[in-house]
Design goal:
The chain is α/β, with parallel strands linked by helices and 375 residues long. It is 36% helix and 26% strand. It binds flavin-adenine dinucleotide.
């Protein structure tokens, strides 16, 4: 029997960050991943300042130059092909290629003594939660704590009768036709979501995020709106924002990142939450070990309460905001209130200074009582 204190399934940002935190604390871990690194992951690769800051703070060994391929301050919103607003943010938005970002994190994990078992797909029937073991052809692996960091799949969720809910993304790459470096968001084309065009060095990443129900109209979005030659169009799931019943899990089983449903349902941003929840899971494991109890899950749920609450509030807002009538009026409002758009991008999306619930109140207070301006 091969023993690890913690076994992590999935070596994306959530799993790698969790492993990094645990290795630094001297806790033995391994990561199983179905892929071999560097591996690709379908993703727009937009990173916010809070994400880059978190990596810098918790993984100072990784320099931004290793994974940031582009940086821009230029943002444009369109509504049904009509330009709404084009503005410049004081805080840059960063763009990455996931092959680079995820590989940097995995390399650091390895440098800290972590073991990665690549090309190893873990299946539900191989996990025995009672004896805390995973049975593979290569041997039997024993864990005290199991971390599910396997993205939008239902591996451990199925084992515990949890049913995660997903939205759908379609993404492809387009050749760069100009030196334009604008992050462009297209509203009003897909159901409860948006289309995007993110500039990278020699190409752009174009895609849509939409609810899975009904016909998908991503095809017409690429053809009629983007009008660029698209390559390698593929689809992938993303958490919808609906709560995952994490409480149903055993005390020694924690889900992190997409597996836990931790993606902002309004923006689709998930890398930040993946890193954050991975870091928190590592802290919860350390705390339980230090206290000599096995209340891993209780501690973790307590620590991710703010994340879950913010995602719940965002999900509520998404339902209102993406209603076709509301969206139309909201777009006209944004056109007239540039300051609001900038406040949202700079203070909320880039820095996460406020949660969705008190965002509007904070804006009104700072704009009209304190007289601050954005843009
Ligand atoms: C099209 C698209 C665009 C996106 N754009 C952005 C964006 O611009 N910015 C942003 O912040 N977020 C974006 N997201 C969301 C972001 O990609 C995810 O939130 C993030 O990758 C979650 O990280 P994770 O570590 O939880 O999971 P993942 O990154 O999915 O990593 C999971 C890992 O688990 C492995 N794995 C899966 N199943 C098994 C198994 N059974 N056994 C072993 N290993 C397994 C996989 O190989 C993978 O390495 C986008 C998502 C999509 C689909």
């Amino acid at each position: 029997m091969i023993k690890y204190a913690v076994i992590i399934i999935g070596g994306g940002p959530a799993g790698a960050m969790c492993g990094i935190g645990l290795q630094r604390a001297g806790i033995s871990t391994c990561i199983f991943d179905k892929a071999a690194f560097p591996r690709d992951k379908l993703c727009g690769g937009l990173l916010t300042k809070k994400t880059v800051d978190m990596i810098q703070h918790h993984c100072p060994e990784i320099k931004p130059e290793e994974y940031v391929v582009e940086e821009t301050n230029s943002v444009a919103f369109y509504y049904q092909n009509e330009p709404i607003i084009h503005f410049s943010t004081r805080i840059p938005l960063y763009l990455t290629e996931r092959t680079l970002l995820d590989d940097s994190l995995i390399k650091l994990y390895r440098n800290l003594g972590g073991t990665v078992f690549e090309n190893e797909t873990i299946r539900a029937h191989q996990i025995d939660p009672g004896s805390r073991t995973i049975h593979l052809d290569t041997g039997t692996y024993h864990y005290e704590v199991l971390i599910g960091a396997y993205g939008c799949r239902s591996l451990l969720a199925r084992l515990h009768s949890i049913d995660p809910d997903h939205s759908f993304c379609v993404e492809g790459t387009a050749d760069k036709v100009s030196a334009e470096k604008t992050v462009t968001i297209y509203f009003g084309h897909v159901r409860s979501g948006y289309g995007w065009d993110f500039p990278k060095k020699d190409h752009s990443t174009v895609g849509t995020l939409e609810e899975t129900k009904g016909d998908r109209i991503s095809g017409s979005f690429f053809r009629d709106i983007i009008k660029k030659d698209m390559h390698s169009i593929r689809g992938a799931l993303i958490p919808s924002g609906r709560k995952v019943a994490l409480k149903k899990l055993r005390q020694n089983v924690l889900l992190v990142g997409d597996a836990a449903g931790f993606t902002d349902p309004v923006t689709g941003e998930g890398i930040y939450y993946a890193l954050l929840s991975g870091k928190i899971a590592a802290e919860s494991v350390q705390e339980a070990i230090r206290n000599g109890n096995e209340k891993y899950l209780d501690d973790y749920l307590q620590k991710v309460r703010t994340i879950r609450k913010n995602i719940r509030d965002a999900n509520f807002l998404k339902k209102i905001l993406y209603h076709p009538l509301v969206l139309k009026h909201f777009m006209h409002f944004i056109r007239r209130h540039r300051s609001f758009a900038l406040f949202y991008v700079e203070e909320m999306v880039s820095q996460y200074k406020y949660g969705y619930k008190d965002f509007l109140f904070r804006y009104l207070r700072r704009r009209f009582i304190k007289g601050e301006r954005w843009g």
